[in-house]
Each structure stands twice: as C-alpha cells, then as structure tokens.
Recover the amino acids of this structure.
C-alpha cells in the first residue's frame, strides 16, 4: 500500500495506542501524532512508543496529517471530524466508533462534498482501557468493518481498507445501516444481557458464582458511560435484537414450564451448534 | 483429616478424574477405584493416573469402599446411590450433581435411616469433558457446596466437608433448597441466556462476532442433554430467576425506548459494580 506521511490519532486509549503501535511497527508513516485531552494519557502513549509526538490541541495536532483516525467515544466523533476536516480538508479521515449510521449520516450532511471521511469499526477491544494496555497485534486476525456511504470516493475507501489490512485485520465492507443491525445482535445485545445478569443476581448468592457466570457477565465490566452512548446511538436496532432474543426466551420459558425435555434440548442443541461453529 | 481406605469414583469424566487425581496426590486413601460405563473412559482415567483400578460393574466397584463419590449425570444419581447403599451401607456416599433438592429428598425417602449419604456440588467444570481433561488442581480455590438435610449425621457432614477441603476447595454448607435457588441465579440462568443469545443471533451476522459475544455465549457450548437434565431438575427456581432477569430487561427496554440516558447508565453502572466485585 501507499504509505502515509503523517498519521494523527485522536484519542490514545486502548484502540488508539494499539493502532499507533501497529502503524509504527509496519512503518506505515514517517510519523504518528497522538492527540488527547489528558496530558497523562499522552505521556503514557509516548512512553510505550505508540506515538512519536503528542499534543492536547486537536487543530494543531492534525495540521499536516494525511491520515487522521478518530478513536474517541462515539458522542464526540461527529464534531471532532468536522473540526479536523476544516483544518485538513485533503486528509483521509476515519473513526473507530462502535455504531455508524447516525454518525455517517450526520457527517454526510455537514461535511464539504469533496472531503475524505470513511467510517470504520475495528471489532476488537477489551475491558482494560488506557494506552498502557495497547498491543501492536490487537487487530491481527480481527475484523474491521469499513462503512462507506453513497458519497464515499472509491479511492478513499480502498486506502482505508488497505490501511486496516496492513495492520493484520480482515476487512469487511458494509453499509452503515447493515453494520449497525449486525453489531446490535453480535455486540450490543450480549452486553445488555451480561449487564442484566450481573445486575439481577441477588447479593446473597455471590459466593456461588463460578466460571459460567464470570464468562457470561465479563463484558458488563465495560465502562458504563461509553456503553450508554453506544446503546443510545443504536437503540432501534438494539431493541429489535432484544425482541428477537425475547422470542427465544419465551420458547425456553414455555419448555421449562411444560417440562418439555425434547423442546428444551433442541433449543440448547441449536445454540450449541452456533456456538461451536463460531470458535473459542 | 482421617484418611479413607478405598475411595470409589462412579463416573470418570472431567470432575471424577480430577477428584481422583487430587485424592491420589493428597494420599487421602490407600486406593482409588474408577467405575464407568465405557471401557474407553476407564482406560483413559487409569492412563492419566486418576484411578488405581477400574471396572464397569457398579456393585463390584464399590464393594469395600468407605467413600463413594457419584460423578454421573444428575438423572442417574438417585438410582446409583440406592444401589451403592445396598452394597456398602456403612460407606460415606456423596455426589457432585448440579441440583440438589429433588435428589436429596428422593434419597431421604428411599434410603435406610442409618445410611451415610450427604450431597455435594463442586462449583467447577469446563466445556471440555472426559478424564483426559482432569486436573489435580481443578477444585483448588473453588467452592464446594455441601447440602445436608435433617437426616444427615453431623459426623458424616463433617467428614465430607473435610474431604473437599483436603482437595483445596472452600466449603459452604447450605440446605438443598437454598443451594438450588442460588445456582439457578448464578449458574443455570447464565447458561440459559448464553444459549438464548447464541440461538437467536442471525447467521448473516456471524462474521461480526467478536470477544464480547464469544465470552457471553461460551457456556452455551456445554453438553445439551446434560444441561436439559439440570434445567428440568431445577425448573421452578430457574423460572423464578428468569422472572427476575426479565424485570431488569424491561427496565433496560424502557430506558432504551425513552432514550433515558441517566436511567440506562445507572443500570449499566450497577451491573458493572457487581461484576467488578466478583473478580475476573
């Protein structure tokens, strides 16, 4: 792929720092600039060599960049991309937000026609946040969804896809709408359920918690404010996924009430087949 | 603790083999006999030194044992304990079944008054079954619930508690009823939900499955027939736990429908506090 001169990463948390580490390892640019609100995070990001330079000033940080990757919470992305495009209208800009439809359509309406924004969503992360948890291999073997819309230019989309592929990710193109429907089922609903289980377990029973509960509720440890944003920015699709799940739960409830062994086992068997097919 | 002369383990799967390995390591008996239906499992259990001797014949296997541990699926336990007590009425007998109320009360009604059965439930396991996955340290740091009833003799309960403690487990005494309510919430409900999520994820979205989905659904890979038995033997408590979860889900649904950020974040925050408190 054609290398970049200067990559700016806005938000140097787990994902931002991991992208910086991988981009530097693969020598995808002459320099990587880290931009953040907190000097302490920027210091950590620089100390672990995720970025070459840092600043808390967005406009100054992106000046001169030919690729900008916005890795901030989903509520902030639209305004930040607008500010970035105002400074470097010729730069390729992407983000790593977990939902895409609201964001992409807000930007389609507000950005100048010849700007170069293409949305992305790397399907990776973890409960740990902060640049010190960044890993150059975080995206290796993971999927990054790239979500062009009608206004996206083919060459921009291709360069963004090539960039993620150069970090070791498998790249999938989807419309923002398709993406949001899919992640509602594969990411947001599991999070909602993990939280519902953790939140509804009576305190008296905590001593009997074991591996199964811990696995099933692991993602409920994620940052509540961040997930509140994700849920609200995709609430219609999450509600649809929840409706689908409630149908399955009703079948399970009926099977339990009727002590219908055959039905119950067939529901468990079907779930097991899906789980087995999707790896460990 | 006072050692045993001969321990018989009925069912040499993951749990049975792990108990054998740990009992042999801790030299808790002169010999450990493995009893199973399949010669192939027995061969594996002997090959990995989980047991000293093996047989497919229940009555012959337990003859001479002073401790018998029944590690077979929950549906089989009552009949097997009855057969064991008929052969060695003086032996201490326990089981590792995941539900206790049905089983303990069926045995209370059917066993002779001076028999020595005390139920147990080691809170450990994994998706992998079979003696080859057994580990001497499987129970170290885990909880084993011991579930005496009114008929249990104190000395028997104490010896069973000491046995599990000698394998490195933390021992908790609960009534069979309390135990079943608790595990409905901490084990059975998470399994039901993991299966519901795996079972209701549309196939088109499989490529977007990531860490969160995989963690949340991991236990849905468990054996469907085994879990069908567990659910049916505890269906009333599982239904009560499900009702409690559905209340939480309704609050989440309302918060999403009303786009009530404060309510949603407070639900997520409460779940996070519980999850954080219960370890990794």
């Amino acid at each position: 792929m054609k290398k970049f001169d200067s990559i700016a990463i806005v938000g140097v948390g787990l994902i931002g720092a991991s992208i910086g580490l991988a981009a530097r390892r693969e020598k995808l640019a002459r320099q990587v600039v880290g931009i953040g609100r907190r000097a302490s995070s920027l210091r950590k990001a620089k100390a672990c060599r995720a970025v070459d330079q840092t600043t808390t000033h967005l406009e100054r940080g992106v000046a001169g960049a030919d690729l900008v990757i916005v890795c901030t919470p989903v509520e902030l992305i639209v305004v930040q991309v607008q500010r970035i495009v105002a400074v470097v209208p010729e730069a390729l800009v992407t983000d790593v937000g977990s939902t895409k439809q609201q964001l992409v359509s807000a930007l389609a309406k507000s950005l100048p026609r010849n700007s170069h924004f293409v949305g992305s969503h790397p399907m990776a992360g973890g409960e740990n946040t902060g640049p010190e948890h960044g890993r150059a291999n975080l995206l290796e073997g993971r999927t990054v969804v790239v979500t062009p819309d009608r206004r996206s230019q083919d060459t921009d989309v291709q360069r963004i896809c090539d960039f993620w592929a150069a970090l070791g990710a498998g790249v999938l193109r989807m419309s923002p709408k398709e993406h949001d429907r899919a992640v509602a089922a594969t990411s947001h609903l599991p999070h909602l359920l993990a939280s519902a289980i953790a939140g509804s377990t009576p305190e008296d029973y905590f001593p009997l918690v074991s591996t199964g509960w811990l696995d099933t509720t692991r993602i409920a440890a994620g940052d509540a404010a961040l997930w509140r944003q994700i849920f609200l920015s995709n609430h219609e699709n999450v509600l649809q996924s929840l409706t689908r799940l409630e149908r399955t739960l009703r079948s399970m409830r009926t099977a339990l009430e009727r002590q219908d062994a055959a039905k119950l086992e067939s529901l468990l068997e079907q779930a097991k087949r899906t789980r087995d097919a999707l790896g460990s």
